[in-house]
Amino acid sequence: MATTSQPLRGKTTCKKIFWAVFPHACFILSLVIYAFLGALMFSHIEGTREVTVSEEYTTFLQNLTFLARKLSDNVTENDKIFKDDIRELFNTADPVWFISPEDRWNFFGSLFFCCTVFTTVGYGNTYPVTRTGKYLCMLYALFGIPLMFLVLTDMGDILATVLSKSYNEFRKLQSKILASKLCSGSTCSKRNELKSRAQSKIVINEPLTIMEVLRSQSGMRQRPVKYRNVELFEMLIAREKENTQPARNKSMERWSSCPELAREKPVSRVIENFDKIGKELEKLDVPIVLMVLVIFVYISCAAAILPNWEKNMDFQEAFYFCFITLTTIGFGDTKLEHPKFFLFFSLYIMIGMEIVFIAFKLGQDRLIILYKKVISFCAEKNMPSKKIYPK
């Protein structure tokens, strides 16, 4: 029996782990599939579009030719005027004119664009040009942004659980260290002995029958017969009510005694996991200073790695770029030369957005508490003082 029970226990534990991980994997996998489908769609629509020469592009080339002819090699006093005219001219230029659609809207470029859409970053340097691409971009964002927020909330529960447990373990360890310093050896040994004696006295008894209860009542015999009959009658009525209650369902008894034998129990657990999304994030209570420190360390690690493939960035520029990305601001002033390499950094973006989201949630809770204190203080201050009239 022991040899057959061990494989069954191993299978049940594997099933429990599978059904516990299944909701989280389902959300992440659906987001990945959604991003890949969007990349295929936008690469086909925007990458295969026909390049037409617009009137704005023709006017731009004419003005550029005019400025080039106007410049003379022997006149140096017009250099500043020429630079200002060139700057104004290129500010009116559209970057789409100088990049072929096949190069920008390949699979990796389209995938990078999809990530910037449903993460609400939106750098602005890559955007759809065709009317069909614009309509599909709105529809894609309409379903992609809620899916991304769902993934953020689900992963936020995991990170909140890890952070809260780590913080609580750190506090417990800190309290133990302080207790060991403050506590002397003799007093600690006496406390441990008292605890061991108290634990040894704990005895778990099974529920007694009515007759055993009556026999155990030493004061029952000393009371008058009238009171003994009343108490005995009440006990018999309680036992009769317990016996006349409807019998419980056998499946419920089997579920309470052995959960592994219940049918469709893993499915119900998965449904409960879906219903509990966001609950752990609401329970999180860690210092806001700790979250700010975690964000600073997290962005600093990426800022030290990112300049290895983005040669136009240093540590400060990469730190600024990561902060703008994780906070979903996305000005677009800092451009990436190799977006396909940064796509492998997408896991970093998602986890970083989780951390920033948790920090914003904690800051929101602290602000609500502060507003409550201020409003209650102002209300108590403006309350009219009670006047005591003489009798």
UniProtKB/TrEMBL annotation:
The chain crosses the membrane at residues 17-42, 105-123, 135-153, 286-306, 318-336, 342-363. It is a multi-pass membrane protein. InterPro entries: 2pore_dom_K_chnl (IPR003280), K_chnl_dom (IPR013099). Keywords: Ion channel, Ion transport, Membrane, Potassium, Transmembrane, Transmembrane helix, Transport. One of its GO terms (biological process) is stabilization of membrane potential. Residues 93-159, 294-364 form the Potassium channel domain. Its main location: membrane. It is found in: Membrane. GO terms for molecular function: outward rectifier potassium channel activity; potassium ion leak channel activity. It comes from the Eukaryota. One of its GO terms (cellular component) is plasma membrane. Pfam families: Ion_trans_2 (PF07885). Gene3D superfamilies: 1.10.287.70. The keyword Plastid does not apply. Belongs to the two pore domain potassium channel (TC 1.A.1.8) family. This is KCNKI protein. It comes from Sylvia atricapilla. The gene is Kcnk18.
